[in-house]
Amino acid sequence: MLMYVYSVFLILWEILCCVLLLDSFMKKRQYGNRMIPSGICAGLLAVDYFISCTLYEYLWVKQGAVILAISVAMYFIFQGRYLKILAYTILYQGLALMADYSVLLLFGKIFPSFSQDMQEGSGMSMLASLICKILLLCIILVLKRKSGCKSWDMLTGLEWFWILLVPVITIISLVATVMKFDALYQIHQEDILLYVALGMAGMNIMVFHFINEILDREAVVRSEKLFHEKVKNETQMYYAISENLDKQRKRAHEFKNHTACIMALANSGNYQELMDYVAKIEEELKSGMDMIDTNNVIINAILNTKYKEALDKEIVFVLKVNDLSGIWLPDTDIVVILSNLLNNAMEACIDCEKKVVKLKIVLEEDELMISVKNSFSKMPVKNKGVFVSGKEEPEEHGMGVMNVIEAVQRNHGIYTVSYEKKMFSFYILFSKHPNI
């Protein structure tokens, strides 16, 4: 009975570890019923068990059949081409064999009789196999960390340390058990010991499965928050554009009245009154007209709106631009990047003695450079690798910056963030042909 439980457990462990690995590089298929992926894994468990029972004498044939079965099952769980999934499955099998070989080689040197125990299929060999699988889980977790998986990327370095501590403690406990196995075997506690070991290993995979589910749910929540923040910024900017258009229509209507009045004053010969009237109109036009023109309607609306906001807040707004009519970025991403960066810049310098915001947008030779610098009074704070603003609502901290970063990455740009001498800098570079 114990041998059957042990065999099924190891196969299930390998399937779940494979799902964890592929989840780092690929997106899961969306099924209406969440039981479908579980059913696929259950079917794969039965197929793998059959392969293990019938082909156990033919190692390489068995490995090939297992890789084929796993890759087909993963194709129905994850989105992507089959050959790509097959490559990741082969990578997984290579990692599994590497973990097995490392542990078995180490145990062979520590315990002289270990080779014989492996051939006999003793309890010590079962414990060694469990250690191999937990080591495989540790390797996959490290790969998830290095791959930049979006959901797991939310964890801080300290949180990763505590998570990895769970399998490490389990491995240490099992190694200590193996070292005392002979004494426990003599008092007929072998089966109890193996069931406890299986339970400890099972708890590891359950813990990481639930952590993965929680992080996936948190990633969805964060994505929704980013989307709402993006929509809010775009709505505000397009509202400002619409407001400017309404003002222009009103000016056009008023211009007709002004023209009629000027003609009446000229015909009546009241030239001094005419000069005063024209001077008054000129001053009104200067105060109402846009100060910045980049030959791009969207950027003009953003910069003129933010320029007026900066004047109202007594912020020195230093600007360097050139002809931006050739910008290839989507309008929505332009709004996200400029609105968020300028909002954060003005927010950060509002309490400074010298309130300064410097913006540079230059398009030259198929490269677009955007640089935003601002003074600040409080040291910038990082939250999970992202600089956050000082918004009163904690749930909005860092949302604008994350929206900017996503927009930059979506358009194959690069960015750097730095601060020194009381100036915070956000630098972005886009290339029209990033793959060249």
Total DSSP helices: 13
Beta-strand content bin: 5-15%
Helix content: 55-70%
Task: Give the count of structural domains.
Answer: 2
Task: Enumerate the spans where pLDDT stays under 50 for 5 or more consecutive residues.
Answer: 391-397
> Radius of gyration, Cα only, in angstroms?
33 Å
The major sheet is characterized as:
5 strands, mixed
Helix-strand category? alpha+beta
Mean pLDDT: 77
| SS elements, strand count | 7
Shape type: elongated
Oligomer kind: single chain
Distance between the termini: 61 Å
How does this model look, in words?
The protein has 436 residues and is α+β, with helices and mostly antiparallel strands. It has 2 domains: 2-207, no CATH class; 292-436, 2-Layer Sandwich (Heat Shock Protein 90). Helices cover 68% and strands 11% of the residues. It has 13 helices and 7 strands. It has helices at residues 2-23, 35-54, 59-77, 82-110, 114-120, 123-147, 157-179, 181-186, 190-268, 271-288, 297-312, 331-349, 399-410; strands spanning 316-321, 356-364, 367-375, 381-383, 386-388, 414-420, 423-431. Strands 1-2-3-7-6 form a 5-stranded mixed β-sheet, covered by helices on one side. A two-stranded antiparallel ribbon has the order 4-5. Helix 1 packs parallel to helix 9, helix 6 (123-147) packs antiparallel against helix 7 (157-179) and helix 6 (123-147) packs parallel to helix 9. The chain is elongated and about 120 Å long. The model is unreliable at 391-397 (pLDDT under 50).
